[in-house]
UniProtKB/TrEMBL annotation:
Example GO molecular function: protein disulfide isomerase activity
Protein name: Thioredoxin domain-containing protein
Species assigned in the record: Ooceraea biroi
Keywords for the protein's UniProt record, in alphabetical order: Redox-active center, Repeat, Signal
Any one of the GO BP annotations: protein folding
Repeat among keywords: yes
A Pfam short name: Thioredoxin
Location of the Thioredoxin domain: 1-101, 102-233
GO cellular component: endoplasmic reticulum
Length: 237
């Protein structure tokens, strides 16, 4: 279930494993709305020993919130082995939060490589890539990658379309629709290496190699047609 953390328990609690932590203030309206959903998320994952769902009250435990540079409430951070990996910026519904947990665990599995006795297949949910998972995720087939910044207006407008595009190819294991948040500390170098100069930047990769930058219309139909065309070109070769 849901664990309430304090300054005394926080560090030890998140020092190993995967944690999804809600940093909140009791007076904040959005936090109050999220509270029952967060509780429900924790309950639905209570038998899952791979991920811990917890919360910390920033009005009482300021030093922890300061350490993680919390500027607004609620802030939802994905923490692995004591380090902040990602900040959740999606919809705060039970379904979306649960899907995010699955994606982040899949990312972690992909990064750590095959476990003994089986290969870690990266499920085709939308992966938010980090440098560790990037090379692995684009290695095979066609990969269409969105490099973005959460604060950028064009990126926000593209976000739901990109999710829809991903759904269209979810059954096709040869096409990966991916995204990289260039504002994350872990991804800044990756975005520089890939020569991302503005947001959003959409690059197409084939079997791990960058083929081209997409500069066309960002409508769902146009993006879909583009990927299909690129995919068919590849098939005919």
């Amino acid at each position: 279930g849901l664990v309430e953390l304090t300054e005394q328990t926080f560090e030890k609690h998140v020092s190993s494993g995967h944690h999804f932590v809600k940093f909140y203030a009791p007076w904040c309206g959005h936090c109050q709305k999220l509270a029952p959903i967060w509780e429900e998320l924790a309950n639905s994952l209570r038998n899952d020993d791979v991920v811990g769902i917890s919360k910390i009250d920033c009005t009482r435990h300021r030093s922890v919130c300061g350490q993680f540079d919390i500027k607004g409430y609620p802030t939802l951070l994905w923490i692995e082995d004591g380090k902040k990996i990602d900040k959740y910026t999606g919809q705060r519904t039970h379904e979306e939060l649960k899907a995010y947990v699955s994606t982040m665990l899949a990312n972690a599995n992909a990064a750590s490589g095959p476990k003994s006795g089986g290969s870690a297949e990266v499920p085709n949910t939308m992966l938010s890539l980090t440098p560790d998972t990037f090379k692995l995720s684009i290695k095979k087939g066609l990969s269409f990658v969105k490099f973005f910044a959460p604060w950028c207006g064009h990126c926000k407008r593209l976000a739901p379309t990109w999710d829809e595009l991903n759904k269209k190819f979810i059954a096709n294991s040869n096409v990966n629709i991916l995204k990289v948040d260039c504002t994350l500390e872990a991804s800044k170098q990756l975005c520089n290496e890939q020569e991302v100069e503005g947001f959003p930047t959409l690059y197409l990769y084939r079997d791990g190699h960058k083929v081209t930058e997409y500069n066309g219309s960002r409508d769902l139909e146009d993006l879909y047609e583009y990927v299909l065309t690129q995919y068919q070109v590849h098939d005919e070769l």
